Amino acid sequence: MSRLVFLTVAVLTAGRSPQPAATQVLPPIERFQVGQVVIGKPAEDVYEAFPAERRRLVDLGLEGQLSPALEFTFPGTTRTNGVVAELECQRGLMVSRIFVRDPAFRTAKGVGVGSSVGELRAAYRLDSVVSGEGTVGIRVEELSATFEIDQTGPGGDRFWRLRTAETIPASVKIIAVLLTKVGAG
Fold first, then answer.
1. What is the rounded distance in angstroms from the CA atom of residue 33 to the CA atom of residue 29?
2. Do 133 and 68 share a structural domain?
3. Nearest to 98 by CA among 72, 75, 59
4. pTM recorded for the entire structure
5. Domain final residue pick, 40, 74, 101
6. Half-sphere exposure of residue 137, counting CA atoms within 13 Å on the CB side?
7. Which of 88, 104, 139, 166 is most enclosed, with most CB atoms within 10 A?
């Protein structure tokens, strides 16, 4: 009997092609936004755009101060702090900056966490090198973004002294993307 059931199932499924798994398309990193997370938008609106299990209010503790932020896990990702919206309260609680740490997110030109400086250089005009609080980044004004670079490799401890992005080796990796409304953030 079990052989008959197996043959019947085999015959019925033989003509069917396997269904591809549904893939979630992530929003691109854009000027001032990643999907529903938008600089200048009220924090409550952004917070409510995500289900409870995909959002979290945190304190980043920047410079030893209370620094409220929202961490989001987008559908199709599992990293809880992959997209972080820093909040300010000057005109109500608003999104002031967005950090992208999840390599699943990319710009329209395919650059994101894990890309090399060479790939960034090939895709965008690099405007300046910025440093602060122990980080070094390459500013791309077209996106109003700073691409934070890995300083752990050879020469990385000297990147903060560099004044032009052309002097940073093409092989250096991007470890985060910071979106800001104005300036280097």
1. 6
2. no
3. 72
4. 0.83
5. 101
6. 24
7. 139
22-70 pLDDT, tens digit per residue, is: 456 899 999 999 999 999 999 999 999 999 999 999 999 988 999 999 9
Position 184 confidence tier, pLDDT thresholds 50, 70, 90: very low
Looking at the structure, do residues 117 and 179 belong to the same domain, yes or no? yes
**Residue 8: inside a domain, yes or no?**
no
> Which of 101, 132, 160 marks a domain boundary?
101
The number of angstroms, rounded, from the C-alpha of 141 to the middle of its chain's C-alpha atoms is: 17
The single-letter code of the amino acid at 156 is G
Contact 103, 112 (CB under 8 A): yes
In total, the chain counts a number of residues equal to 185
Q: How far apart are CA 131 and CA 159, in angstroms?
A: 9
* Calpha distance 100→29 (Å, rounded): 8
Determine the Cα angle at 24 with ends 21 and 27, to 5°.
160
Q: Which amino acid is at 94?
A: M
CA distance 83 to 101: 6
Nearest Cα to Cα of residue 30 among 143, 122, 146, 183: 143
Residues with Cβ within 8 Å of 27's Cβ and at least 6 positions away in sequence, in order, are: 33, 34, 35, 36, 74, 105
Among 133, 1, 153, smallest CA distance to 62 is for 133
Residues of the domain holding 181: 106-185
Beta bridge partners of 111: none
- The domain total for the chain is 2
